[in-house]
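Dear support,

We are seeing what looks like truncated structure output for some complexes. This example has two components. We would appreciate it if you could run it in full and send us the complete token output so we can diff it against ours.
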Amino acid sequence: MNPRLTRNELLRRGAAGGALLAFPSLLAACGGGDDGGSSSGGELKTVLNFANWPFYIDVDKPTSLQKFTAQSKIKVNYYEEINDNAEYFAKVQGPLSQGNSIDRDIFVLTDNSRFPGLLVDQGWVEELDKDLIPNITNLVDAQASPPFDPDRTYSLPWQSGMTGIAWNEDVTGPVTSVQQLLEDPKLKGKVTMLQEMADSVGLVMLQNGDDPLAVTDESFTKAIDAVQAAVDSGQVRRFTGNDYAAPLAKGDLAAAFAWSGDIVQLIPDNPKLKWAIPESGGMIWTDNMLIPTGGSVPTASTYMNYVYDPAVAAQIAAYIQYVTPVKGAKEELAKIDPELANNPLIFPDDNTLSQVNQFDSAALDNEDYITQWQGVLGQ
Amino acid sequence: MGPFFHRHPGLTPYLLLAPALVWLGVFFLVPLGFLGYQSLQSGIYPNFEFTWEFSNFSEAFSDYRTQLGRSFLYAALATTAALLLAYPLVYWIAFRAGKWRNFFLLLIVAPFFVSYLIRTLAWLNILADEGPVVGFLQAINVLGEDGRLLATTFAVVAGITYNFLPFMALPIYVSLEQIEPRLLEAAKDLYATPTQTFLRVTLPLSAPGIVAGTLLTFIPAAGDFINAELLGTPNQAMIGNVIQAKFLESLDYPTAASLSFILMATILVALLVYAKAVGTEKLTG
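Here is the complete output from our reference environment:
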């Protein structure tokens, strides 16, 4: 080995070691170690701690959660605490990186962010116990093998959804294109975009006539420039997670990049809200249930099996109006509400699917893209 | 214990200081040292390496000097506004409120019974585009038809002013309340006009309160991020927002840590300049 390199290395290690002695536990907190093994499966518990996004479960009684408790004797603590993938990941990565539990048995993250892949790579999620999930056979074929988890060893889809434009008819006429949202002077300061890079950059790329599934430096920069221009001109008010919903319903926002089911759920109380796939196309993504290190695998797997029962999936989808990943749910839903079973937001038809696009999974991990996007967010 | 202190009387002050020193050491110096260590790392989450990356500081400064400058501008505006609002208010309480003094002081402190976050969220509703304030201002043509308050610089500075007003008001009140009334009578006896009395007696005697109040307002205001986050847009982002987002959104710990140091250093320099300008005796009263 080259001796000079060794000396450099030694100096560096020495410096790091000094700091290590001074702050051992803190160092571990930031550490890049991947020793968070997923050996402990744990016992079946009587409580399931489930972290999910807002507007993402049925609430009409008896709810699917209540039925689950009645049938399995497992009480569910349901936390609507995820507003944004990056934000949630930042919150939980500290304990997870030390191999500590975060007191959750299931959490839900989106495949159009880099975090499901990162969690699997770092070993911060537990393997599913597929013996307890016979209903896994109901998983739709299209979702069987995502790039971040090709054998579905660690994850199962919760729901899929689409990203498009929502607007409040009290404040504005229809907002049907990304260009209108970014440039119409009547909407100035009254629109928001999503913090999620894949959602916002994806929609703008489609407007530019570029393909978000095959991101190039050129197409990325072009989209970033368009977003930056809209921020600089004061057109874009904020970048949001789910938190666009309240100001949009109230009328402080005229239009927003928004997720399909959120708006559909808000419409009964706010009939002036509309949602549509933009003329140039929308984005589609899938949220995945994962078991964080220290979560109870049998308890979580039992619940996953429950929601992969088509009747349960139909009940959830009927309320939240996102795309269900469960085979047979359409038939079950047709028995309750034939009209909903033909709703393209829950069961996208070929026409709808032809209008939505996935985001390039390689681009999600591109450091340069991440940095550029953070620059636009003012971060 | 007793005999020990008798034999070593010189140790007593140090032992009295010990709890505070241990507290500072564990909860301030150790995290600060770790922050310093982190600020010199390089790489992308989760693979950071300690590489004496001093360029983090220069890059962070050049990338975010706009937000840094904005933070100090907003903090200065809010401090000035708070001073202009607080001084007449506590002057009145100290000299005119009589037996109602404590009641009015309680009113100044009352917002503190509600959490900071909730207080700021309340402003979201007060300033909402479809809310009564904007409606009224539009009706009297102060705001245009499409005018708004929320998501503007005004909203952010107003939010900061509101949230830190008690920090300005209370020290000034204390210094005003301690003024010997006979000094004011003496000024009057010597034919000073009310204005002269104020400028030459009251104001100088309340200066320590003003200095303390401005520091207590300016320092936290410069690092604030809640107001800009909730009441502003990306164009109002302050340095606190950048640090918050770097730590909790983008997981860029080295940049976040170096920005924290830059903020601390800038505040310290500003403080020294201020102390020099007003004279240190005013800081200590």
